[in-house]
Design a protein that fits this description.
Blueprint lengths: L3 H6 L21 H7 L2 H13 L9 H23 L4 H24 L10 H20 L25 H19 L4 H6 L10 H18 L6 H20 L2 H27 L4 H23 L14 H18 L5 H4 L7 H36 L8 E8 L12 H11 L3 E5 L13 H9 L2 E3 L11 E5 L3 E9 L7 E10 L2 E9 L6 H17 L4 E6 L7 H9 L3 E2 L10 E6 L2 E8 L9 E7 L12 E3 L36 E4 L3
Parallel strand pairs: 1-2, 7-8
Antiparallel strand pairs: 1-12, 2-4, 3-4, 5-6, 6-7, 8-10, 9-10, 11-12, 11-14, 13-14
Helix pairs in contact: 3-4, 3-6, 5-11, 5-15, 7-11, 7-12, 7-13, 9-11, 9-15, 10-11, 10-13, 15-17, 16-17, 18-19
Length: about 675
């Protein structure tokens, strides 16, 4: 939520200070605050505040939503600190496992919601989850779980039942790093596929159904955590974990995905052990504060790795995910290798009369774990079957339409998810080939969503994710109604600014092959970058087949240096060279016949308009005539090439109404002079 605001301004806004909500456990270092938080009435209030913050989804605007969420985050961490360090061993054991299983359950829910967090996916889902949360909170308040005994006021009493008492700083940093690793790479089962993705046809594993292997890997890791390991085995296992992390970063496609799955097993295998070390610390507030400090620091560093151009000191963190992942694995390894080698239940001193309860609890935990996994695999299977049925529905035809749209990671101008609105808009345009810019939301600070997969499954389109998430671009995706024969991902020269992505690809329009090049250039301020990027893309255009369409965001005016580079050296034509009121999005072509050109207002769904064009594939590539006359009266051209009248009719100038409407002197149609 914090990232939404700099997303709009391309600079820090000051609202990043709300990240201080993560540091609320610092207050508990002060004795009176610790005793206050242990009061059953205060704890009840904190629980209700935590659950109530979910209602922020229905707040009237983004700043209020951020404020409410901040209160919820700070309250939840206070509750977590108090409850994890209070009660007997069995209660604490169950709370920790409940937290871990909660993460698995969230992954399963996201499978059923096609990568979206259901809490933030729709008002209906939000209301249901908010209601269930309130019921659970009230049950906790009245069940006796919050009847704090006198010893709860002592920060050490809960810890005295544990076998060991680790260093709070090391355990805190390790636990915070483990939490961030889990969110960063395993916050959604599609993420591993997006780290390993490449071009067609050897693009690596698709997130559906192969996200199921990630879910299975995480579950098997938790099962391994019930074993007791020797020091030698622990060290060997850590080396395997380090190697798998490196493999995920540096290997390609299936090899990277296998490494990611091994890392999934390792990550969840160490979760119970590191959590046990964490709650064994003598200083709860200090340990939790250290964990949150590490978590927030790593989260901000992750932002800096990609957004380096817009943040202070960003040049030092540019594309440095390898340093971040290495630091995280080192912190986890230090605690994993130096702490107790026992499983979570053994970390607590188990009285003889409690051992049967622990054994029974473990059985229930395993049962719930595999129940969640089964539900998740069922969701993937049903989605996959439905998606396969939708594919390949494009009818044979000579005419096709292409579209370009930047949509800001699936968030509208008010900070809410715009996926439903986007799907409706894309469907109404009737476009056969779509490129969407700023599409990589597979990052923890954007939401760990997968708009490419979501839109592909909703619309029944073939997809190309574009350059990998680990390439530190903002993303560029392609959606095609017709099969993608081959594609190559490109990172354009970007010596000074943000990494510019591009895709060159071939689409099979029922037997007729047409090439596409889609690209997102750097910002206006980076003159050298744009110059080099224009040269690189012009080479792609020149070396492509005779029939090609370019859809690009080049941040230059018509007739500018970069525009001219593409036209002359790329050997392409502008869809409408008379349209001088453009700056970012452009459509160019070669070897096809232009039929129409339209610009559609964004209506607040994004900050940028939609541009689309219609083309015809000539029967004889060596003997055809392009349309050279512009008309704005649709009655002068066949009805089958008209744009959807749902967007109104021809309109001069900008459309400022909050409806999608043709504007900027479009739509235009093209016909031959004679």
């Amino acid at each position: 939520m914090i990232y939404y605001f700099p997303l709009q301004t391309l600079a820090l806004t000051g609202l990043e200070v709300f990240a201080v909500a993560f540091f609320s456990p610092v207050l508990l270092i002060i004795g009176p605050f610790w005793r206050l938080a242990n009061n059953k009435y205060v704890l009840a209030l904190l629980r209700l505040t935590t659950v109530g913050s979910l209602a922020s989804y229905q707040a009237p605007n983004a700043p209020i939503r951020l404020l409410i969420l901040s209160a919820g985050v700070s309250s939840s961490l206070l509750v977590q600190t108090v409850t994890w360090w209070s009660g007997n061993s069995l209660q604490r054991f169950i709370r920790i496992w409940g937290f871990i299983l909660g993460k698995i359950m969230l992954l399963v829910l996201r499978i059923w919601y096609t990568s979206l967090n259901p809490v933030w996916s729709s008002p209906a889902a939000n209301t249901v989850i908010l209601t269930l949360g309130c019921i659970a909170a009230v049950e906790r308040i009245y069940s006796g779980g919050d009847k704090r005994k006198q010893e709860a006021n002592n920060t050490g009493n809960g810890v005295r039942e544990t076998v060991s008492q680790p260093n709070w700083l090391l355990s805190g940093i390790a636990f915070g790093s483990l939490m961030f690793l889990t969110v960063w790479i395993f916050g959604e089962v599609s993420l591993i596929s997006r780290w390993a993705v490449s071009g067609h046809p050897h693009r690596g594993p698709d997130p559906n159904p192969y996200g199921g292997t990630v879910l299975l890997g995480l579950a098997h890791g938790l099962m391994l955590s019930f074993w007791s390991w020797s020091s030698v085995a622990n060290f060997a296992w850590f080396l395997i974990g380090m190697a798998s992390a490196a493999g995920l970063l540096y290997l390609q496609t299936w090899s990277a995905a296998v490494a990611g799955n091994i890392l999934a097993v390792f990550t969840m295998c160490v979760w119970p052990q590191l959590a046990g070390h964490f709650v064994s610390c003598l200083h709860p507030a200090k340990a939790m504060s250290a964990a949150m400090f590490a978590y927030v620091l790593e989260l901000f560093f992750c932002v800096w790795c990609t957004a380096y151009k817009f943040v202070p000191g960003g040049i030092y963190a540019r594309e440095s995910s390898h340093l971040l992942l290495g630091f995280i694995m080192l912190c986890i390894g230090l605690d994993f290798l130096t702490g107790s080698k026992k499983d979570l239940s053994s970390i607590f001193e188990v009285k003889s009369n409690q051992k049967p309860l622990f054994k029974r609890s473990k059985n229930y935990i395993k049962l719930l774990l595999w129940l969640f996994v089964g539900v998740g695999l069922l969701g993937l299977g049903l989605r996959y079957k439905a998606y396969e049925k939708k594919l390949g529905q494009g009818v044979p035809k000579r005419d096709f339409s292409g579209m370009i749209w930047p949509f800001r990671f699936a968030y509208d101008n008010e900070g809410w998810s715009n996926l439903e609105g986007s799907a409706n808009l894309l469907n109404q345009t009737g476009a056969d080939f779509i490129t969407i810019l700023e599409s990589d939301a597979s990052k923890p600070f954007i939401g760990n969503n997968d708009p490419t997969m979501w839109l592909g499954e909703r619309l029944g389109f073939y997809t190309d994710f574009g350059p990998s998430t680990r390439d530190h671009t903002w993303g560029i995706m392609a959606l095609s109604r017709y099969p993608i024969v081959k594609s190559t991902h490109h990172l354009l020269p970007s010596p000074e600014g943000e990494i510019a992505p591009a895709i060159s690809m071939t689409v099979n329009f029922t037997g007729k092959l047409v090439d596409f090049v889609v690209a997102h250039f750097g910002n206006e301020e980076e003159d050298l970058d744009r110059k080099l990027q224009a040269i690189a893309v012009s080479k792609l255009l020149k070396t492509s087949s005779k029939q090609i369409v370019f859809l690009g965001y080049i941040t230059s005016a018509p007739g500018s240096r970069d525009y001219t580079e593409l036209i002359k050296n790329g050997n392409v034509q502008d869809i409408d060279h008379t349209d001088r009121d453009r700056w970012c999005s452009y459509i160019m072509y070669r070897g096809v016949i232009r039929l129409g050109y339209a610009r559609i207002s964004h209506a607040g769904l994004s900050d940028s308009e939609v541009q689309m064009a219609k083309f015809r594939i000539p029967d004889d590539l060596d003997n055809y005539v392009d349309n050279d006359r512009i008309v704005t009266d649709p009655s002068q051209v066949p009805e089958d090439i008209h744009f959807n009248p749902r967007f109104g009719s021809y309109k001069d100038g900008h459309n400022y109404e909050l409806i999608h409407h043709f504007h900027m002197s479009t739509p235009k149609y093209f016909k031959q002079t004679n």
